[in-house]
Amino acid sequence: MEIRILAPTGALGAGFRAESLERGVAMLPHVIACDAGSTDSGPYYLGTGEPKLSREAVKRDLRLLLKARDSLRVPLIIGSCGTSGRDVGVDLVAGIAREIAAEEGLRFALALVYADQDPAYLTERYEQGRIRPLDPAPFVDLDTLTGSQVVGMMGVEPIQRALTQGAEVVLAGRASDTALFAALPHAMGADPGLTWHMAKTVECGAACAIPPGADGLFVHLREDHFDVEPLDPSSRLTPLSVAAHTLYENANPYLITEPSGVLDTTDAVYTALDERRVRVTGAVYRPGDTYTVKLEGARLVGYQTIAVGGIRDRVVIEQLPKLLPMAQDYFRAKISDVFGGRVDPDDVDIDYRLYGQDAVLGPLDPDRDRPPHELGVLITVTAPTQPIAHAVATFVAHISAHLPIPQYDGLASTIAYPFSPPETDRGPLYQFTLNHVAVPGDPYEMFRTVHEEVAP
Amino acid sequence: MTRLLDLCSLIRSKNAGPFVLTFDFMCRDREAYELLRAAQVLTPQLFADLYGADPAQVLVVHHDRAQAVKVSFPRPVRQGDVHDSDSYGGQQYAPLVDLQVPAPPG
For B20, which of A241, A297, A339, B91 is 20 to 30 Å away at the CA? Predict the structure, then answer.
């Protein structure tokens, strides 16, 4: 048995060399797969449903992949569409796929697999005790759960069902990255340990290659091993680079959890086939007792306005530890005064980040007492509405420019703002709310599939 | 005295999901890895001191085949929260670059 898998890129829209894809197509893969999203970039994308990568970049990659699929007549599987994998993200990528079909004269059976979670469903599962925290997880009550945008991270099963029902192109909502690559080999009866390890290896595309790049990998998966190589002939993989990739963005490099069980790579062996290909054996997959679907949630927590400036005068810099707490007290009183009691100062957060002192590492920064010759100042106001955040930021920015310096008489000028106006509305702030799993009745019930014939 | 940077070809911090911070110490070669492993400087207590982590929640894994040490613990604040200063966790490794690694005895 040999199953060939083409992983063209680490993320749809991140790009890859067209020649690399051609090289992968020439090796006749049984499936082409990649993801189009993750939580890496923060809660904004899940909260809003907006994509991180541009429509143009996604369309460029998707056009090449749809044409490659058409020439091979094999499935194309793309997961976590639109960054967050929310329903709007699936619809966005589906719209782009239809446009490309019209422009290129392509015809294919499309399945859209949606992953948004209905608050009523979540409430039912919550009340049944079937929403469980992972470690570490924030506290979650029913209000947080139903007040968040929530997606479930699908495993292989809904994707396999879509393929069985005839889909040639699967555009999935939030999915485990590995499920996209594992779905077909798993359905074809490949060894589960090798299948999941292969999927983990290729899920970031050529990120594990030397040099790492926005490009793809190709896999030959056989009974007792898989061979992996970069699509770019000028880059290479080594046993060390492939083994090291199990560390990437994981807490535990040996144990990787999937909905149906755990991949254990403790006894995996990596061997160089030549100077750019690696053979991998030895990982095992342990099916779990309970099928679980990871939940991701984000909710709106406020709106922000920011101001950026710099302080160069050492006298002002030296006074900041005294002046900033005084300014905070003044702002609280000012908020009560300006809004006539309609805004509670406790609901407004005014944050100074001093770049050059400890803005990146915070109060535990071991070098925070070293005197800087210049400070970058980021002022962030977070408030329940954008107009309140903006109104507060205008007086915070103004007062920050005229802090009372004891050594100076008269109205001192204490900050250099590069922009007019100094304050900029940053929009909504979202918070990740869940590090939980749901225990569904089966692997399918949390996901909805819509089939469609796409024609030019 | 050897510094961590002398032993590592890559020192990296990242999120492992929005609630966990993870550090990768990729050693330059086998010898560097063995030295780092034997020195036992990358301890839960070190990460407690530098990042305020609960030592009981710090996971330290030595990965022989990757010639790497991996350290993970819960993020002090969740990713992207109002006072999170490093959304990707990408610069949290900075104080470790010049960490002194004692030579093995003998």
Answer: A241
State the total domains in chain B.
1
Q: Do A251 and B80 touch (CB under 8 A)?
A: no
Q: How far apart are CA A18 and CA A146, in angstroms?
A: 44
Picking from A244, A251, A353, the nearest residue to B68 by CB comes out as A244
User: What local confidence, expressed as pLDDT, does residue B55 receive?
Assistant: 97
In chain B, what residues touch A429 (CB-CB under 8 Å)? Answer: 80, 82
Question: What's the mean pLDDT when you consider all of chain A?
Answer: 97
pLDDT of B106 higher than 60: no
DSSP calls for A300-364: EEEEEEEEEEEE--HHHHHHHHHHHHHHHHHHHHHHHHHTTTSS-GGG-EEEEEEETTTTTTGGG
* Facing residue for B95 by CB, picked from A247, A353, A361: A361
pLDDT digits (tens, 9 = 90+) for A305-348: 999 999 999 999 999 999 999 999 999 999 999 999 999 999 99
| Residue A251 confidence (pLDDT) | 87
- Average pLDDT on A358-377 reads 95
Question: Chain A residues with CB inside 8 Å of B80's CB?
Answer: 42-44, 429-432
Q: What is the pLDDT of residue A248?
A: 85
Q: What CA–CA distance (Å, rounded) separates B49 from B52?
A: 6
Query: Best mutation site among B54, B82, B84 for testing chain A: the one with the most A CBs within 10 Å?
Result: B82
pLDDT computed for residue A76 by the predictor: 98
Among the partner residues B19, B20, B79, nearest to A42 by beta-carbon distance: B79
Q: What is the ipTM of this complex?
A: 0.93
Cβ distance of B80 and A430 shorter than 8 Å: yes
Range of the structural domain that residue B74 is part of: 2-79
Domains of chain A: 3-115+154-292+439-454 (no CATH), 300-430 (3.30.70)
Cα A352 to chain centroid, rounded: 27
pLDDT digits (tens, 9 = 90+) for A235-252: 999 999 999 998 888 889
Q: Which ranges constitute the DSSP H helices of A27-171?
A: 44-48, 55-72, 87-104, 119-127, 142-146, 156-164
For residue B60, is it within any domain?
Answer: yes
Let me know if residue B88 belongs to a domain: no
Instruction: Please check whether residue B21 is in contact with residue B85, taking contact to mean a CB–CB distance below 8 angstroms.
Output: no
The number of CA neighbours under 13 Å toward the Cβ of A317 is 21
Residue B56 falls inside a structural domain: yes
Q: What is the CATH number of the domain that holds B14?
A: 3.30.70
- B104: in domain: no
CA distance B68 to chain A (A): 7
